[in-house]
Amino acid sequence: MKSFIAGLPKAELHLHIEGTFEPELMFKLAERNGITLPYESVEALHKAYDFNQLQDFLDIYYQGMNVLQTEQDFYDLTWAYLEKVNAENVRHVEIFFDPQGHVDRGVAFETALNGIHSALQAGQDKFGITFGIIMCFLRHLDEDDAFKTLESALAHKDKIIGVGLDSSEMGHPPSKFQGVFAKAREEGFHIVAHAGEEGPAEYIYEALDLLKVERIDHGNTSMRDPALLKRLSDEQMPLTVCPLSNTKLCVVDDMKNHPLPNMLAAGLKVTINSDDPAYFGGYLNANYEAISDLINNDKENLAQLAKNSFDAAFISVAEKQRLNADVDSYLAKNS
Ligand code: ADE
Ligand code: ZN
């Protein structure tokens, strides 16, 4: 099944570019920027990746980000990710970045955005991987700060396709950001939000009803609410599910208990994604491999997940049809 997954054309829709910062590259860029990391070695840093909950991870994730200083750093980070996923037959990526995580420590919005964007453009030219950039608001900060961030983005609508919501979920419901998301919608951005990773099903309702999201990032706690499951299924609202993230952050206690089969049985439009692969132990194919057993190692089921990723992407109908046809012909040749 590993080789079938490896060759399957697929899209990645839930990926924090700062979460692809591998320890080796972090040490290299720290040296280049004259920064001393609070870890002695790559191995010592790896050992720190032991999380009981989302906040444990976020503390280390924000610390790692401090190393990113120049446009070249953001370019190198993004390029390293593209080389990995090119080898995994990923055909389209929609990438999150956290502008406030950079601006608040003195790195300009444009430094981050331009570095990420020029690498993605180079990746499209060289590998044919199409892309979109989604900027996320940090939900532990206030709505005024998110408004300022949105203001910065308005000059870069040619580079940013959407707006999302991430960081510490508990205590920071979507309702806190209703105003800024209304403005983002008016400005024509696509809308997504992390909801129901740790937070209650109520946060998923708020993301749908108040933010008017087009995809739910994670959405695990919808499993506790049959009426919500029915609604997500009726609306065919895509969920960007991240299996290795879920076990690493103890959202799910063991992969064998992952809700993916129940999500599919409930008729949800599920996609598979890697979230923060440098921290969670695997890129996109590793995430497909992690859940393959749960769907009976069935090639049609795996192909359906890949097709869902194209259906849920912010691309044209013609692009979706072209990419889904590639999945169908791959399945026909490899069944
Ligand atoms: N930022 C990066 N990864 C995240 C996740 N899984 N949940 C919330 N915020 C994040
Ligand atoms: Zn995420």
TrEMBL record:
Q: Which InterPro entries match?
A: A_deaminase_dom, ADE, Ado/ade_deaminase, Metal_Hydrolase
Q: Where is the Adenosine deaminase domain?
A: 9-329
Cofactor binding annotation: Binds 1 zinc ion per subunit.
Q: Which reactions is this enzyme annotated as catalysing?
A: adenine + H2O + H(+) = hypoxanthine + NH4(+)
EC number per UniProt:
3.5.4.2
UniProtKB keywords: Hydrolase, Metal-binding, Nucleotide metabolism, Zinc
Signal sequence span is none
Tell me the Gene Ontology biological-process terms attached to this UniProt entry: adenine catabolic process; hypoxanthine salvage; nucleotide metabolic process
Can the keyword Zinc be found in this entry's annotation? yes
Residues under site feature: Important for catalytic activity: H218
Q: What is the lineage of its organism?
A: Bacteria, Pseudomonadati, Pseudomonadota, Gammaproteobacteria, Thiotrichales
The similarity annotation says: Belongs to the metallo-dependent hydrolases superfamily. Adenosine and AMP deaminases family. Adenine deaminase type 2 subfamily.
Give the UniProt entry's GO cellular component terms: cytosol
| GO molecular function list | adenine deaminase activity; zinc ion binding
Q: Which domain of life is it from?
A: Bacteria
User: What residues does Zn(2+) bind to?
Assistant: H14, H16, H194, D275
Cofactor requirements of the protein: Zn(2+)
**Name the record gives this protein:** Adenine deaminase
Binding, substrate: D276
Task: Spell out the catalytic residues.
Answer: E197
Keyword field contains Zinc = yes
